[in-house]
Write a structure and sequence with these properties.
Elements: H1 6-20, H2 30-41, H3 55-80, H4 87-94
Helix pairs in contact: 1-3
């Protein structure tokens, strides 16, 4: 399967939403209410089988991976966002010397 139980995956999703929002009452958020209602409506019981037993787990895991990847990408962009170096700064960093431009072409 995915290495996580349904409850562990739900906890991971809510943890990622806590990183995004500063609201302390996460259960009042419409998105969390939607996720919880989807979890409740897609429980597999002996009388009812939805799509496949692992399909909703796959969808939830896909959402979790997407949300987590977006957060990590945003953190990396903030960490490594810097201005571009000039050609001279890059050459100095590597140890190269740029050729100097001469204005004394009359001598040759």
């Amino acid at each position: 399967m995915f290495g996580k139980t349904s409850l562990a995956l739900l906890r991971s999703l809510t943890r990622e939403f806590r990183y995004v929002t500063s609201d302390s009452k996460l259960l009042n958020r419409p998105l969390i209410q939607l996720i919880l209602s989807e979890y409740r409506s897609n429980q597999v019981t002996p009388a009812q089988y939805c799509r496949g037993p692992d399909e909703m787990m796959w969808v939830a895991d896909t959402y979790f991976q997407y949300i987590r990847s977006q957060r990590i990408c945003r953190e990396l962009n903030e960490k490594h966002q810097r201005r571009e170096k000039t050609v001279q700064e890059t050459a100095d960093m590597i140890g190269f010397r740029l050729p100097s431009s001469t204005t004394n072409d009359k001598d040759n």
